[in-house]
């Protein structure tokens, strides 16, 4: 292994190779995150094969997809018996196999990708996996984090390793500075708009450049979270002092001599000068306006000043058909300005945008305003601790006074596995990550935006340039 | 896992790009704690006119006549032919479970999303990537000729058309071996237990904090 000219990804990959067989590497996994939806069959597999977890203490579990977002303080459980069984199955499996779980009634419970950084469970330089594609979030810590299927969940439980072929290196550099009112979410939507939902397939993307390094840790997590929406195996960002400040003092982060040793290594976790990437992409932050998706794939996105595209002007037949399908599903007419599209629902939350900074940005827009007539708007904090912090800052009062619903933590209407769903034909401004057909409920129409843009849509009833509300 | 060696199968065309795993198996069916029984809900929102629910009897559900798998000529298809970036989005392995349970053993596409591609190999499904022009040509043939079949030979890495044309495809040697032999790859990894142990010991010396647990 050469000590020079490595990318951030190369450094972390090389530090975790247990053995190599041709193109396949046996990669050691430092932390494994588990939730209730993609794990029951993996635990069942262990039982059938009479296998035990190799290192139960490296696995952390939390129920998040199925949990209700109302009535939790009253101790009301899960009404849907099928959802309830899945959460109880997780509880039972964690107890049986000795895995630390943040149960539904634990104040630290929340979306797995929000609580793991919050607790210091995920740290720079680690390899992190979870049976969930948004595991890419943790790349913001300067870690290699990616989603896996249930068979691989079982594989990691049994062996603490995964057989992997090494992805290629891509760097996406966002230079310059964002204009006011434009956020991490707008950056990542603009990137996906540029490279497409399959643009990152086969790659790990390192996000770099001044506009990325100027982001808070929460903002960096938002960007890495949606790397999967560009098709990438993982997204990651170099470690800097902001990363190290974020990690320090968390319940599972190192202390004393361990801290000194760890932080010294973490400070080496950046791409070396002269390291080569298989692909390079550049964006100018100043040229990115607030983004709004118009279709049924995250790449179907435009600026708030844009219009719904006209399929007649698309020459590629597959793309033309995709646009036609999308407009039909979304109930949109070609060439409609985005600002003229009205919304029925607003969803603020998810592993993409359910952190404290996101709630602050939305509250700043909601303050002193009212949710527009006929619009139902909800705020779902990403974790119990985010909710506590928001309440300590009085954000919940701003939201409630403006007419937003203030909910309990969970994945909620990002994927609508619990009771929070769109009705057929309902149009929603959502801070989540996927606008796929049926994602938020059969026939539901999702437009992805930043928290500030979602709040702006809530108070005006249509997509609105948040920069104008700030004037 | 059932081995995959050769398959002579009826082909069904799904002429859409970026088919996501939410479309392949919608979220409400993910509440199941089993790995089987998802086939009848495959592409549920495209296949049926009503709202699907877990454990629903599908016998009398209204079918969408416009959806390709509802056409009689594709009944019993075991090969799915589709466009680029198939299986994008959620990592849910329920997607390959549903495809397999429905009867698909091979998916031919211009490209696949990474996690879905991996998940196929864990379940005895062969995902085959072919160039754009080849897929476009096959798509035209399948639509034109009822009963269109392909012969897939994994050891030879070839697909043969009814006209006798042979198309070669690439597949990683390790994954190919596991699929041809129907191997449980956890068992394979456990053969390297001594290497894993040695790695852990080395790593504990280099990076003790990784083994420390809760500190506060």
Describe the overall structure.
The complex is a heterodimer of chains A (471) and B (216). Chain A has 471 residues and is of the alpha/beta class. Chain A is built from 17 helices and 19 strands. The radius of gyration of chain B is 20 Å and the shape is globular. Chain B starts with 5 loop residues before the first strand and ends in a 10-residue tail after the last helix. Chain B has a seven-stranded mixed beta sheet with strand order 4-3-2-1-5-6-7. The chains are: A alpha/beta (471), B alpha/beta (216).
Q: Rg of chain A from C-alpha positions?
A: 21 Å
Stretches of chain B where pLDDT is under 50 for at least 5 consecutive residues are none
Output the CATH homologous superfamily of chain B.
Aconitase, domain 4
Structural class of chain B: alpha/beta
Find the structural class of chain A using helix and strand composition. alpha/beta
State the CATH class of chain B.
Alpha Beta
Care to give the gist of this entry?
The complex is a heterodimer of chains A (about 475) and B (about 220). Chain A has 17 helices and 19 strands.
């Amino acid at each position: 292994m050469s000590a020079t000219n490595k990318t951030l990804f190369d450094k972390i990959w090389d530090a975790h190779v247990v053995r190599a067989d041709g193109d396949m590497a046996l990669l050691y996994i430092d932390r494994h995150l588990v939730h209730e939806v993609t794990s029951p069959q993996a635990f069942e597999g262990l039982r059938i094969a009479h296998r035990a977890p190799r290192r139960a203490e490296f696995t952390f579990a939390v129920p998040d997809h199925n949990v209700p977002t109302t009535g939790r303080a009253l101790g009301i459980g899960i009404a849907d018996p099928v959802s309830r069984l899945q959460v109880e199955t997780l509880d039972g499996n964690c107890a049986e196999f000795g895995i630390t779980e943040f149960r539904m009634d634990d104040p630290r419970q929340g979306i797995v990708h929000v609580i793991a950084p919050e607790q210091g469970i995920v740290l720079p330089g680690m390899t992190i996996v979870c049976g969930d594609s948004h595991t890419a979030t943790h790349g913001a810590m300067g870690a290699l984090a990616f989603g896996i299927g249930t068979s691989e969940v079982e594989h990691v439980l049994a062996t603490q390793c995964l057989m992997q072929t090494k992805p290629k290196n891509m760097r996406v550099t966002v230079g310059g500075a964002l204009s006011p009112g434009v956020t991490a979410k707008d950056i990542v939507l603009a990137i996906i708009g540029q490279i497409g939902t399959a643009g990152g397939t086969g790659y790990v993307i390192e996000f770099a450049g001044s506009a990325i390094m100027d982001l808070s840790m929460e903002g960096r997590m938002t960007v890495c979270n949606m790397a999967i929406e560009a098709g990438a195996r993982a997204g990651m960002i170099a470690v800097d002092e902001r990363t190290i400040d974020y990690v320090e003092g968390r319940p599972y982060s190192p202390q004393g001599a361990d801290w000194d040793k760890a932080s010294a290594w973490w400070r080496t976790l950046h791409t070396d000068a002269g390291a080569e990437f298989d692909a390079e992409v550049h964006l100018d932050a100043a040229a990115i306006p607030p983004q709004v998706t118009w279709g049924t794939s995250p790449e179907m996105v435009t600026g708030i000043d844009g219009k719904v595209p006209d399929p007649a002007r698309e020459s590629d037949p597959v793309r033309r058909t995709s646009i036609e399908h999308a407009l039909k599903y979304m109930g949109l007419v070609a060439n409609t300005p985005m600002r003229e599209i009205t919304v029925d629902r607003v969803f603020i939350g998810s592993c993409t945008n359910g952190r404290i900074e996101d709630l602050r940005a939305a509250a700043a827009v909601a303050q002193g305003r009212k949710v527009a007539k006929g619009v139902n708007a909800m705020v779902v904090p990403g974790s119990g601790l985010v909710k506590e912090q928001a309440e300590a800052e009085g954000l919940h009062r701003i939201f409630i006074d403006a007419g937003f619903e203030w909910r309990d933590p969970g994945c909620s209407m990002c994927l609508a596995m619990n009771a929070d769903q769109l009705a057929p034909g309902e149009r929603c401004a959502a801070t989540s990550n996927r606008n796929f057909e049926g994602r938020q409920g059969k026939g539901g129409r999702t437009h992805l935006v930043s928290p500030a843009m979602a709040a702006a849509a809530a108070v005006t009833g249509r997509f609105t340039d948040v920069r104008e509300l700030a004037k | 896992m059932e081995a995959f060696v050769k398959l002579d199968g009826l082909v069904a065309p799904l002429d859409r790009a970026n088919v996501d795993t939410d479309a392949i198996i919608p979220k409400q069916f993910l509440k199941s704690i089993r790995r089987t029984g998802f086939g009848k809900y495959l592409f549920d929102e495209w296949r049926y006119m009503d709202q699907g629910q877990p454990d629903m009897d599908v016998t009398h559900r209204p079918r969408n006549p416009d959806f390709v798998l509802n056409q009689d000529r594709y009944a019993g298809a075991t090969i799915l032919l589709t466009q680029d970036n198939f299986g994008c989005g959620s990592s849910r392995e329920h997607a390959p479970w549903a495809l397999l349970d429905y009867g698909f053993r091979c998916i031919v596409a211009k490209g696949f999303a990474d996690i879905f591609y991996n998940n196929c190999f864990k379940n005895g499904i062969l995902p085959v990537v072919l160039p754009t022009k080849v897929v476009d040509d096959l798509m035209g043939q399948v639509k034109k000729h009822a009963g269109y079949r392909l012969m897939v030979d994994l050891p030879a890495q070839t697909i043969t058309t009814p006209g006798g044309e042979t198309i070669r495809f690439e597949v990683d040697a390790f994954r190919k071996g596991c699929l041809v032999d129907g191997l449980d790859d956890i068992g394979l990894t456990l053969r390297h237990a001594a290497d894993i142990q040695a790695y852990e010991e080395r790593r504990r010396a280099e990076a003790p904090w990784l083994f420390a647990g809760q500190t506060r």
